[in-house]
What does this fold into?
Amino acid sequence: MKPDRRQFLALAGVAATGGLFAGCQGGNGDGDGEDRPFLDPEPNYRGWFDDVSNYEGTVDYRDESEVSVEVGVEGGIGFFKFGPPAIAVSPGTEVTWEWTGQGGAHNVVAEQERFDSGDPVDADDETFSYTFESPAVYRYLCEPHESQAMLGAVFVALDQSG
It folds into this structure.
């Protein structure tokens, strides 16, 4: 039986020498975090990602102090996704959302008004940063593209054990 992606990454992590994943701050350049392991077990997102076509799991960035998420990556129909859509970070991590210039005007707005990038922007040089201090699941969306399931989440974990 061929291992699935999670099994492969888990096996690669066990077999790797010390720094296989070291220095991989922002994924492999296409915003999906493919060169990073997925968190296991997953946080309970309460169905948040049920319709998000590019969600495969929570990408583990807990060893990084700064992480980037792309705004306007392809997924489903058009450039209406975050890449990666779900990340795990440690308290004190600064997350920067970087607009790709694809898919029209986007913004980043968290539930319960925890953070908000402001009005939607259609640009390829726009960024928005937020430093996560408290452990929690922070769910967010792009207001103009919520109906296209442009959703994301940041899971802030206390330590490497989740």
Strands lie at 59-60, 66-73, 81-83, 86-89, 93-99, 109-110, 127-132, 136-141, 151-156. The mean pLDDT is 84.
